[in-house]
């Protein structure tokens, strides 16, 4: 009898903890969703289609970034809100003719190795007919989930480079990317051009670190130390910094130019034409782009039919984000850092 009573009591305690945890999770999510209004002026711009537009988009983003990173110097004792880790789906592939994953490679990012022959030519690790699928600028409603579905239908895996701000707007979409077993790096906080003359070394560092911290905050887990420069603008100082942080840098072998494609068919044709010529490569696409999401089922089918094989890149170890940026971001977003009480416990309607 006594042990039964004790068991009951223990059970109640466990249940209470679980309920409290649920509240906490719900509050964290609400805070995440409310974040855009609280913290940021506007979403990072979509990929502009001409070089003149690139310059103006950059300057806007840079200004925006300065406002926000300015407050990062203040120290805070805030903690990252704990989020439950998404459980990777390990279900068997339902599609017997799926493209799948032919090979998984693990990358030792010590010293900041570079990948993608458009800029980095030392590490030629793909064999003939091998491709790496990469997607930039997400997470974004509609388009990213469509990309995820197309990849999942073919039981294949990709590498995502989300924009930090976008990760704070749509953390639930980025968590879905992780839950489906894809690799996630980062692509700066606000898509600023790190090679711009106006960009100081400190601002470039802030863009890099805040981008990684934002991805970590959204995921509740550290991202891979994989980074892609916005517009593939490799600033020498930023490259040296990334090297010192042991972050691998990604250019590409093959640019889909999907952000300026007039329709899905054009993306499929661009990628397949270049691929048939080059024979292999890291393919740059954007899960932010609607046409890309529309093109993907066809493109993956064409890859399979053409005898191409997907290689997934993973990091040997996750990135150690810097605490000052993790904390600064939480502070900026006004997440509940001291009290995690549910709204209904704090505010009650007593007359209506
Ligand atoms: Zn980009």
In CATH, the topology of the domain at 103-321 is named TIM Barrel
Bound molecules: zinc ion
Number of helices: 11
Q: How is the biggest beta sheet arranged?
A: 7 strands, parallel
Q: Mean pLDDT, rounded to whole units?
A: 81
The shape is globular
> What would CATH call the class of the domain at 103-321?
Alpha Beta
* β-sheet strand percentage: 5-15%
Rg to the nearest angstrom? 22 Å
CATH superfamily of the domain at 103-321: Glycoside hydrolase/deacetylase
Class by alpha and beta content: alpha/beta
Number of strands: 10
Q: Any guess at the CATH architecture of the domain at 103-321?
A: Alpha-Beta Barrel
What share of residues is helical?
Answer: 40-55%
List unreliable stretches of 5+ residues. Answer: 13-80
What order do the SSEs take from the amino end to the carboxyl end, as H and E? HHEEEHEHHEHEHEEHEHEHH
For the termini, the CA-CA separation is: 49 Å
Can you tell me about this structure?
It is a single chain. This protein is of the alpha/beta class and 352 residues long. The chain has a domain at 103-321: TIM Barrel. 44% of the residues lie in helices and 11% in strands. The protein contains eleven helices and ten strands. The protein is globular. The relative contact order is 0.19. Residues 136-137, 187, 191, 230 line the site of zinc ion.
Brief overview, please?
By secondary structure, this protein is of the alpha/beta class. The chain is built from 11 helices and 10 strands. The strands form 2 sheets. Strands 1, 3, 4, 5, 8, 9 and 10 form a 7-stranded parallel sheet that branches. The chain has a 3-stranded parallel sheet with strand order 2-7-6, covered by helices on one side.
């Amino acid at each position: 009898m006594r042990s039964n009573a004790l068991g009951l009591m223990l059970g109640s305690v466990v249940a209470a903890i679980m309920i409290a945890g649920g509240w906490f999770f719900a509050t964290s999510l609400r805070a995440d969703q409310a974040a855009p209004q609280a913290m940021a002026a506007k979403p990072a711009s979509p990929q502009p289609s001409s070089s003149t537009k690139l310059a103006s988009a950059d300057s806007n983003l840079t200004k925006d970034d300065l406002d926000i990173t300015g407050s990062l110097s203040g120290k805070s004792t805030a903690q990252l809100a704990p989020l439950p880790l998404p459980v990777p789906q390990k279900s068997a592939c339902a599609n017997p003719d799926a493209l799948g994953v032919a090979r998984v490679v693990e990358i030792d990012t010590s010293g900041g190795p570079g990948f993608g022959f458009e800029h980095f030519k030392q590490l030629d690790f793909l064999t003939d007919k091998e491709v790496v699928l990469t997607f930039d600028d997400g997470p974004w409603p509609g388009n990213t989930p469509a990309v995820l579905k197309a990849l999942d239908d073919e039981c294949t895996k990709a590498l995502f480079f989300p924009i930090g701000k976008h990760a704070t707007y749509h953390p639930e979409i980025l968590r879905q990317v992780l839950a489906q077993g894809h690799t996630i790096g980062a692509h700066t906080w606000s898509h600023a051009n790190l090679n711009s003359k106006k960009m100081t070394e400190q601002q470039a560092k802030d863009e890099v670190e805040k981008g990684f911290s934002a991805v970590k905050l959204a995921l509740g887990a550290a991202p891979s130390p994989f980074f892609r420069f916005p517009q593939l603008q490799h600033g020498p100082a930023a490259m040296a910094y990334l090297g010192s942080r042991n972050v691998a840098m990604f250019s590409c072998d093959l640019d889909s130019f999907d952000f300026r494609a007039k329709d899905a068919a054009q993306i499929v044709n661009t990628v397949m034409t270049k691929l048939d010529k080059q024979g292999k490569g890291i393919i740059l696409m954007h899960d932010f782009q609607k046409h890309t999401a529309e093109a993907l089922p066809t493109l993956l089918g064409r890859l399979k039919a053409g005898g191409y094989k997907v290689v997934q890149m993973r990091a040997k170890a996750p990135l150690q984000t810097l605490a000052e940026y993790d904390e600064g971001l939480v502070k900026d977003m006004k997440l509940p850092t001291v009290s995690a009480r549910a709204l209904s416990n704090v505010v009650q309607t007593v007359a209506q």
